[in-house]
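From the pipeline queue, job 12 of 40. The input is one protein chain; the requested action is below.

Action: predict structure.
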Amino acid sequence: MGYEIDAREQYQAALKAGKKQYREDIHNGNYPYLQVLDEILDGSMIAGQLSLGLLEIPSKMIVGTKTAGRTTAFASNFMPLLSEGSEFGAKWMQLCSAHLSDEGIRDPIKCYEYLGRFYVLEGNKRVSVFKSYGAPSIPAYVTRLIPTYSDDEEIRSYYEFMRYYPLTKLYQLRFTQPGSFPKLQTALGYEVNHKWTEDEKRVFLSGFYNFETAFNRLKNPALQVTAADALLVWLKVYPFDDLRFRAPSDLTAALQTIWQDIGVLVKEEPIEVSTEPNETEPETNFLEKLKTSVFPTKSRLKIAFIHELTPRKSNWVRSHEVGRKRMEAALGDQVETVVYMDVGNAERADTAMEDAIKDGAQVIFTTTPPLIGACRKAAVQHPDVKILNCSVSMPYTGVRTYYGRIYEGKFISGAIAGAISRNDHIGYIASYPIFGVPAGINAFALGAQLTNPRARIDLRWSCVPGDHLDEMKEMGIDVVSTLDIPVRDWESGNWGTFKIKPDGTTEILASPYWNWGTFYIKLVRSILDGSWDSLNSSPDGQRAINYWWGMASGVVGIKRTNAIPAGVSALAKIIQNSIVNDSITPFHRPILSQDGVVRNDGSRDFTYEEILNMDWLCDNVDGGIPEFDILTPKGQAIARLQGIYRDDIPPEIEGVLL
């Protein structure tokens, strides 16, 4: 009898599974048989075909048959629908006996692949037998049908898959987010163009299978994210080797800690921008202040500040330290702060985060974008700690980011520059091509145009080599805007917007500045009074929070000097007051970009998302946004984290994976 009894029992089980699938499909209104590729495609949908030779293809991606043939002999899951006594059943059981014997099923199937799914030309019953035993892969001769290119999201995603497929030869790796594969290479410790060895593929698949199993256990069918997409989120926090050695229950629990960030991947607006503080609480009256001084509040927060450098090395850190001390003075016994400085690499940053939490910190402020990696790890391990990073456009639900709408001050500086310049050319030295900086350039250009309709802005970048100020002096430019002051009391050097006198000396006119003390006071008060939790109540679920407050909140200010004529200074004050009370907004006006596109016909204001993500420049700006390759090393490091084109930059093996 050999394996006949086992084969018959296997067929009976497969037939039962097939009939169950058939009933479910009918009940749900789905087609109950195998998909037929010839019925899906027409000639215009195919640009060509390519023989891929003999491969091991994932059995779960075999979804149908090339031609109609015996389609109705199978349910949609490839399980049989014909009776055990049929000729079909007899042949199926013969194949099953061969599979169970030492001989095995030797002949590979033949199939066509279209958009990552496989359709069988020869070997439907072999596929059915293999699938009935839960075989993860099946040997097949594969012909790829290349779809005609279009802007359809699935087609664009597939073309990206075809670019990296030769490096892995793995169909299991399908991403929905552009630029994901280079990030995976980096996360695994490979160069971007590294070709995987057979051993590397084996090791990867052993971990990926465990991850995919846990992912499918948690995934809602409506979530349009692949396991490969989710893996990249995992690798921002956990090492890949964890996937191979964690127990299934532990792996599932760990995956749940990052599940909200996985869901954010497919949101059209993954970041909720908080543009003004929530100040619904009334000011504390005299009696309440007296009561607090006699009976100190029991609500006391321990707050850690983590700085990449020291105030001596960094004016940026100095500005945050000024803000921390002001917050301490304002909130008194309600807060206790501790400071960690000079944590300039990933290991020291991770250690500082853990030390702060072990020491009882309930809130942690990290003051530069490169610390986002340490924030992400700590947020996953310690979800009860409130963690913030001074940056913008970071789509992580466990870490809130904060910055200032400095473009409002740039608009005022531009108006001052346009009024004071003796000619129509004004210099502008920008910092880095990162989120929010093009908005500052454009706001300055529009402000200059407000007071001088002929004004043109000569744009240079401090992150591109060159002596830009000397070049501007040689061009006869007499007003220049450069890096802003970190705090109001700043006095040394050329900063903000300044005038170049005929003898070559400079005279400071004005500069926006950050008032981090105001931000820290208001943010900490929101934690103390409970309004912290009022954000992120969107109906579509959790989103990342980005605080982006402006002049009305007091977080952004502008310093004007006595070098500005009285009339111009008065005008600047009027514009500032109008921005604060929202009667003037810098971008609510007709705007034409350098490429001739009408960005605003003057009938509306831009959304904050549009402003933050600007990647174009106004038509009165001469100069462009520099390419990544010409930036200084520091500029490249910052652009990787916050650059407006960061998703197109090949990642580095060393560094934060975004």
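Job complete. The CA atoms of residues 352 and 358 lie 10 Å apart.
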